[in-house]
Amino acid sequence: MDPTCSSAFIHGYERMAAWSDLLDQINVFPVADADTGRNLKISLAPLRQLDAQPKLVPAHLVRMATGNSGNIAAAFFYELLGVERASQLPGAIQRGMRKARQAVTDPQPGTMLTLFDALAEVMPPHDLAPGQWDFVRIIDRLQKTVADSSEALPQLKHAGVVDAGALGMFIFWEAFLSHITGRKQSGRSVMEVFGGKLAIAADWAPDGQPGGYCISATIRPDGSRDGIRAQLPDGVESVVVTDDAENIKIHLHTEDRGVLRSGLESLGEVVGWSEERIVSVVRKATQSGRAVHLMTDAAGSVTTEDARQLGITLLSSYLVVGEQAWPETLYESDRLYAAMSGGVKVSTAQASVFERHQSYLSAISRFERVLYLCVGSVYTGNFETVTAWKADHDPHDRLAVIDTGAASGRLGIVVLATARFALEAEDPGAVMAYAHAAVARSQEFVFLDQLKFLAAGGRISKTKGFLGDLLHKKPIITPTAHGAANVGIVRNRKEQLDFALGKIDGDFSSEDAPDILLQYTDNRQWVEEVAAGQIQARLPSARIQLRPLSLTSGAHMGPGTWGMAYLPAFDWKGSSETLRS
Fold first, then answer.
1. Which is nearest to 326 in space by CA: 46, 28, 21, 14?
2. Per-residue DSSP letters for 66-126?
3. Does the CA dihedral 38-44-47-53 come out positive or negative?
4. Helix or strand or coil: residue 389?
5. Which helix (H) or strand (E) holds 376?
6. Residue 477, φ and ψ in degrees, nearest 5
7. Beta strands in 411-542, from DSSP E residues, in sequence order
8. Which pLDDT band, with edges at 50, 70 and 90, does 524 fall under?
9. In angstroms, rounded to a whole number, what is the distance separating the alpha carbons of residues 495 and 366?
């Protein structure tokens, strides 16, 4: 594929990923389960590998497709990945549009399928170079298609929003076309384009309660692929069927997963199966009553569930596990550590500068005031990137940034405490001052089990890692504003716990009630039952929270690692600060 095409695909994905939280927020069709952005972000993540591994991307796209929107989008983009140059795109878009429609058993108007139709109709003849394409005409048509979607389906009309899947594809294609036509613009705020149709009406509620399961199954058929849909059990909904050279991928909603599985096994070998209970999640809150919206890096041990409950925007990096790239917040920790234990090569990659810029734009477009608790500048370039962007793009000073000097659990406990404080605060400056105080008072210790994973990632030499493991050396480190400091070496887990308890005994009395964040990798049971139990026995009033170690950290430190971060209880009576970085 021509480098201009591949970079345009990557550009489109990165912009869509940066706005994926908004897609989740307005997701009401076909089920109001707040996962359209999540599913598209997972399903199209292979596009990020087009520069490095272009031949593997089509198969990965089909394999990683998840959810209704993700499987439809994967069917569409699969056809586009065969182009070698931009002039072939109009024809490929026609094929992709047909393939996406064929994948859906009951296509509905006003969805991403309608946007694909509009894109196919408005694309120029194949003999025109991208520089000659009428960018404004194409985008105006796609914009109108998305705006009209709010009237196309009863669910969208009553909720007062555009279709989340169609909006996701508009965001993608505006960035893609801008890049490939040479406009190179940074991208406008989506809120300025569809602002009146990007919040669910306060009085809207989904019709009835969703039930059943969302199933994603991959089968290797025994015989003909024809008529697969006709052989599915009665009562299934939201059916999307896609295929590649070897397998057939089926996504659907069903009440009876047992009957479904038996039926699929009669058609061939079931080589992949995932299921998720369908639960209605309506995210209406605009946080208009809050003093400030918090944003942080997923390098802190804050989960997506924490982010949803406390109203936090998480900025994620990417995990590269074997040959596949995943957003770190959407990858299962059990899978990561199983892969690492099995010898699979794992690395991390930061989001591009463009994706980070779009994330900042999304945040200040959607929230009046934003406080970004940034991972320590000694660990990544995020602080430098955001401060440079702010200087050029935040004239009204809506974004404040704190270089926390922290990562993993220490960043996590600061963010969680500040988020809870922000729920009750009326003054944005007070929230910022509280965050500074929490940074100054927090502490963390991380207990590594093996050094070979740090060596594999280049953090230490392979010789040092081999000898350390041979001699059963288990370092204890603490992340500081100047880097990770080695504060001890022990030989086994008992000595790790003794060290942790010694720190607890030295910093607190039995009457104290600190916040304690315990983090696990593949050792949750021991951390929960042994470590947490002994710490709670010493500090009965402590609030102990259990979280997975951030996968950015886990990918470098490996299985067996665990961590303890803590923040002493304090009554905040400090003065407010001006909300600026």
1. 46
2. -HHHHHHHHHHHHHHTT-SSGGGHHHHHHHHHHHHHHHBSS--TTSHHHHHHHHHHHSPPT
3. positive
4. helix
5. none
6. -125, 155
7. 443-447, 474-480, 483-490, 515-520
8. very high
9. 48
CA atoms in the 13 A half-sphere facing the CB of 411 = 32
Angle (CA) 549-554-559 rounded to 5° is: 100
**pTM of the full structure:** 0.89
**Closest-CA residue to 468 (of 437, 502, 491):** 491
- Cα–Cα dist 203/120, whole Å: 37
Residue 63: half-sphere exposure toward Cβ, Cα within 13 Å: 14
Cis, peptide link before residue 210, omega less than 30° from 0: no
Question: Which has more confidence, 116 or 248?
Answer: 116
Over residues 362-406, the pLDDT tens digits come to: 999 999 999 999 999 999 999 999 999 999 999 999 999 999 999
3-state secondary structure of 394: coil
Q: Tell me how far CA of residue 240 lies from CA of 53, 71, 220, 434, in angstroms.
A: 27, 7, 16, 49
3-state class of 242 per DSSP? strand
The closest alpha carbon to 522, from 548, 540, 496, belongs to 548
Query: Nearest-CA neighbor of 135 among 88, 189, 92, 175?
Result: 175
Q: Determine the Cα–Cα distance for residues 547 and 554; give it in Å rounded to an integer.
A: 12
CB 50 within 8 A of CB 1: yes
What is the C-alpha to C-alpha distance for residues 213 and 219, in angstroms, rounded to an integer? 18
Q: Give the 3-state secondary structure of residue 473.
A: coil
d(CA 42, CA 45): 5
Quick check: 245 pLDDT over 60?
A: yes
Tokens of 554: 């886990």
Report DSSP letters for 129-180, one per residue: -GGGS-HHHHHHHHHHHHHHGGGTSHHHHHHT---HHHHHHHHHHHHHHHHH
Token duo for residue 479: 């992340």
Residue 283: other Cβ atoms inside 10 A: 17
pLDDT in tens, 49-65: 999 889 999 989 988 89
Residue 353 burial (CB count, 10 A): 13
What are the tokens at 553? 């950290």
Owner of token pair 């280049």: 458
Residue 243, token pair as written in the block: 């295929």
What are the tokens at 487? Answer: 């504060």
